[in-house]
Amino acid sequence: AQKVTQAQTEISVVEKEDVTLDCVYETRDTTYYLFWYKQPPSGELVFLIRRNSFDEQNEISGRYSWNFQKSTSSFNFTITASQVVDSAVYFCALSERIMNRDDKIIFGKGTRLHILP
Amino acid sequence: DADVTQTPRNRITKTGKRIMLECSQTKGHDRMYWYRQDPGLGLRLIYYSFDVKDINKGEISDGYSVSRQAQAKFSLSLESAIPNQTALYFCATSDSGQGFNTQYFGPGTRLTVL
What we know:
The complex is a heterodimer. By secondary structure, chain A is an all-beta fold. Helices cover 0% and strands 56% of the residues of chain A.
């Protein structure tokens, strides 16, 4: 069965430190997609990144970077030089396609990140 | 203007009342979804719709019903609300087509059932 595990329930770091959020997934699909979403204190869900299973290149976007490793079924997210505005709950998610048409996303339970000033 | 809107944003109601949560989108997407979020449980899928005539149950559909009035509108109803339906509800949309398309979320509706 599809599963996403975010083992870190809550993390606190001091501003300007680097922090990595872990995500491990399980899937029976040969083609799949992975996502990260951010939920700031205001509550909305903001899409950050999507990765397909054929593209293992790491991605960097400003202070954000993502490390996708199929060998360990992981899709980790690193924030460099963290800022207070990065405080949020971060969700890792995995695509699930049933009968070649029913597209769903399976979410992890989230990691709550506190950036302390 | 937001691409995916939800109304109301907050609602407090009593046990046994009928409640409707509405979702509208201007993204032109054909697929729409309803999720609920509970603390520590992530997001769970309630219902999803791939077009106006294609509605499917998600993993936690009991106690809920939906209506897809138009491509841009997808409503979630609680026929007789109960306290354990207190949660944050999200609507999401995605486009069909090649591959798997990203879901974009509305701002959420915080529902409290007393």
